[in-house]
User: Fold this.
Amino acid sequence: MEKKSLGFMVLVAVIMAVAGGVWEVKMAGAELSAAQCKEERTLGENACKPVVYGKLPTPECCQRVRVTHLECVCPVITPTLAALIDVNRAIRLIEGCGRRVPRHYKCGSITTP
Assistant:
């Protein structure tokens, strides 16, 4: 995996993990294909790339965080990826997007404090 993509996946994984408990799945009963999940991750990468480099999330990034399906993100959060994630930073980013951060939420190999 490219370093740029890994950085984005870390960001998105954290954002999804900490915000996951406050979202409803928009397509209840319908599973997304691997291609649809890949497209969601690509859209998120494009919208949130500046965050990987230390900037605050843009409105477009926050919107992407709100609409991306957890079932597309949680499966890619391996123990190796989780070890790279600063959960406290992620919580600050989520709160900056106006989302409540649920306690003890598990997504892949991450559990929020």
